[in-house]
Structures
1.
Amino acid sequence: MRDKAYRNITIFFFLLPALMLFVGVLIYPILMSGYYSLFDMRSIRLNGTEAFGLGNYKELLLGIGTEAKKVGFLTLNLPTFGSINFWKALGNSLLLAALSVFLQLPLALGLALMLGKGIKGERTFLSIYFMPVLISTVVIGQLWRKIYNPDYGILNAVLELLGKEDAAHTVMPQGGWLGNVKSAIWCVFIPTLWQYVGYHMLLMYAGVRSVSPELREAAKLDGATDAQVDWYVVIPCIKNILRVSVIFAVTGSLKSFDLIYVLTEGGPYHATEVPSTLMISMLFLRNRYGMGSTIAVLLILLCFAFALIISAAFKEREYYGRKKHV
Amino acid sequence: MAGKNTFDYGMDQYQVGKTNKFVKVLFYIGLVIWAVIDLFPIYWMFTFSLKNNEEVYGANVMGLPKSWLWSNYAKAMTTGNMPLYFMNSIIVTVTAILISLIAALMATYAITRIVWKASNLMNSFFMLGITIPIHASVVPIFITLSRMKMLNSYWSLIIPYSAFSLSMAILICTGFMNDIPKDLDEAAKIDGCGLWQTFGWIIVPLMKPALATISIYTFLQCWNELMFANVFISDKKFKTLPVGIQALAGQHTIEWGPIGAALVIATFPTLFAYIFMSKSIQESFIAGAVKG
């Protein structure tokens, strides 16, 4: 009996630090996010007289909000329309997600497959490709700001070398690469691609290397070419890793913040606004804490939903025998 | 396999397709091009950190600097406050690593080494943290911190950082701890060790490789983190490198050299560590992703 009590107390003490951190900083705040999202919080304190309900969600999703305005002696709750462009932000992050899945991941897969063939200098290539992943996004953002600089940036210098000054000159009058409404979203995507190809490549490479050599050998014996081996043997074998990569690319794009904040802060004219930058501007520029929480809640729900949808999509096509459990 | 490419299986003859030389050369070209694309911006950053504006602005855009202008680094150090930001980053990162290591080791011990009913449930509970984005808690933590007047302090970053590193740390710990044979615990018990002694004398010393992996992973997460640092810290005294660089870049809009120097200073520790531990760093990322 004493033994059991001793054991239970020990378990409790061993779990205590982790639980305090985990519940205090992750679980409790998430619940509070949900709670705050139901209030029209315009200061950090709930004063008990605030509107309670789905007002924030209505304003965010339908674009119809209310704002208290003083007209003479009266304070009126006047409707506002389209003051927060959530759909534009969501659309931008979905565009980034699509670009990641359809440009970044195939590139990463191609590199991983080429490296996986046991080419000379494999490790050196691998180490170089992975290097940008480790560099702080702020550093990368500042570096690319310099690259995009309309006057002295390296991008325009390279374009001039290639004899394509026109391309540089067409964006120049409209605020340069990052200041142009049309080019800005691409300028935000390219550094992301540059940085994270190495990450996805590394995951896929690890998968490619874990495909048993006998399997390749057998396929080759049956007369498969290299490309066929990759397509029919290697890619189906690393499906699990591809699923992880797709989930990371999509949820990562939905959550993207650092790079956009450094490069454009969501501008010009919301051309690169994403939900996270919108959330931060709710806190700092508008003091709308309830609305900030609402965006956070929707973001989490979207991430979970996409992760589930992607997993389901991968499961359906799993016709290669037994299911793998990770 | 090299050399012999035909196999005889009774009547049939099979030909093993060999990779075409031409295709192989194409592969190489592709790989090298991407390597150059990866390295060039980094090379450019190093070079413009040592140039004056004249060279950056056209005289010598891409080449090595003509005269190596180390004064840019001095400027980043003095007017840019880089030593302060650097120290702040180290204080925050190291403390966060220590806290999450200790908490993760203890929790993992309780979950994997002590037999009790809900241990699996507890493990799944902690694993929830891997999928939770930090965005989820920025607003409530900001509100709590500002009510407690704790914004602009080291703890306002250390506590969230260690909490958000915790799940991954427990995940990695579990993998390593499961590899330690349970017989050791039995032997320790027979020798009269209690649970605490077994933990302190047997398990922790055997967990050194796990500690390295977790530290690397946590270091990279915390060292580069921007959102929390940006929201919770506005006082210069507590700014970490990512926020500090943002401030510095706003200050030096005309002179490029000092900004380049600051970028290099912030990147240097990571790349330096990478040169020596590239394999274990890569492995820590694979471990984090495959199970996450």
2.
Amino acid sequence: MKVLVPVKRVIDYNVKVRVKSDQSGVDLANVKMSMNPFDEISIEEAVRMKEAGNADEIIAVSIGPQQAQETIRTALAMGADRGILVKTDDAVEPLGVAKILAKIVEEEAPELVILGKQAIDDDCNQTGQMLAALLGWPQATFASEVKVSDGKLLVTREVDGGLQTLALDGPAIITTDLRLNEPRYASLPNIMKAKKKPIDMKTPEDYGADITPRLSVVKVSEPPVREAGEKVEDVATLVAKLKSAGAV
Amino acid sequence: MAVLVIAEHDNAALSDATAKTLTAAIAFGGDVDILVAGEGAGEVAAQAAKLSGVRKVLHAEGAVYRKQLAEAMEALIVPMMDQYDALFAAASTMGKNVAPRIAARLDVMQLSDIIGLEGQETFVRPIYAGNAIVTVTSSDAKKVVTVRGTAFEPASDGGNASVEVVAAPDGPFKATFVSEDVVKSDRPELTAAKTIVSGGRALGSEEEFQRVVVPLADKLGAAIGASRAAVDAGYAPNDYQVGQTGKIVAPELYIAIGISGAIQHLAGMKDSKIIVAINKDEEAPIFQVADYGLVADLFSAVPELTEAL
């Protein structure tokens, strides 16, 4: 089957973000950017499906600025076959992303789209579910295990009470959770090979999707800062402090 | 103006998350109805009707609603939204799974995981693992909102709303429930617990997690949490995970044992009232948010604490 994997270029998960003093956003100048960690897990899962003979082509898509091409190259180095960059310097909201992806799905006709469950910048956790709704496809979000059996996908999901397994019929959407797999590091030969893999350059206009933002940012502010308290000497002191605070 | 709230439940009992979501919906304004979709969920509907500030409870019954899967919930709720200006759900795995499908079908941008709202256009939500807080206005005609439970007090009981049975599409749908692995526990639910004892990688094994963390939690009547590292290593099940992409908690007392305090973990617990950290690494970032920090070997300090309480 053909698998489509959207990948997002986000601030690296190790970077401590700083809110701009004019409250217009967070400071992204000279900050390390990487592939959204959940999207790495999505690419890894697609590559494993291909290695197991359950997928034959993996397309990595990114919607973002020119530099998002690097994110696609990372996906290609991990094992995706080709890329599509939908180039835009505007911030596209999850609904807009889902609309563009729906058009790409129409063109490419994949049987499976694997997305990260959320991007670690806006923490929205929406795009996969929105794409599923726009396509009328079934979904299994927050996946921790994916199996292919008799043409059906069996997906185990991480839910609030534990784990839940769903069977999905036909083309489907999966969103990935942390424990689905551990993404590989691309080897140097694969990084070199990835440079020769094709990336289609597109724009949102090519897909005719309405991506006008629906939300406007009033301000971005610092969260309340929690001050460090005190170090206690020993367990007895800790117990005394907790008792006097009425916590136990 | 009318708001529909999706009830969070297991067909037997209404979750506390619903009462918190209701508080946010009431703050939004207008008449608030609660939708209970389930199988054999009559008792849940009766519980929802007792919440204060509810106009009516809509009860949808059917086998396809037993697990409140996304496709069935979409088929049920999208037509109902003709009558409503907003849809509110808890930012639980159910709410996160279902609400964006409905938002997409209504062609609106969802407001995820809100921690505040002003009027009907302005919403406040954390981004970047809670390291920034964004205030946004929405230009959409209808609002679809998921609500962070720790930011809202539960609505109280004392209501007496009517329960109305509604017709519900019965599928078939293309995603079907196969099985689940849900641990039934007498412990309080993590997101509703007053006290949480949470364990990290330093515990070293599932056996030590059981030996060290569990007796303290038992003594305190606490829920048990874990860091991502502990869950990834298999010391604790996935639904224990506290953090940016796990559960967001804000108990009265949070005891972090052998947790270093990565920003992704702090994102899930830093609104706790009192934070205690026990870690032998005095440089661990967890101490920067802890009210009481004990630099000690957890394997001796925690049993001693359990004994002393």
